[in-house]
Amino acid sequence: MNHINVSVTVERPASETFARLESFLREYAPEAEMTLTLRAPFDLTALHVGVTLQRDVVARFAPLSADGHAYSVAWQPVSAGPFPAFGGTIFITSTEDQPNASIVTLDGHYHPPLGVAGDVFDAIVGRHIAQASAAELLERIALYIDNTVVPPVFA
Predict the structure, then answer these.
(1) Which residue has the higher pLDDT, 113 or 131?
(2) pTM of the complete model
């Protein structure tokens, strides 16, 4: 298993962020599950090529506390490919220097696909795919929390 930890700062106090995260999950994962397309962009500048891998995953969410301060999250690719399975936690913390902001963090572990060959794949490119996938999901949630764009579209 390999570790991922990504965070984003949102322009809402922690109490509002908790409420917005709960709203996001009620809207997009009413049965505690959603199917979404995760993307992992690659910039191969030396080759003048930009590539984006994408894969549909089924994500499941469950509250870890009654107050909505933390949720478990796990996703599994719908079909085989280079996207890893992931299990972790989404949690919210206050910022010390910005009272009207908070930090949303996704922390957990993923399992490289492809068995033993996956370890080699992970060292070359798999870690980037896992990190980018986690960051993209967290960014979608942050956009919803900040209410700065139309809510993200899921598969």
Answers:
(1) 131
(2) 0.81
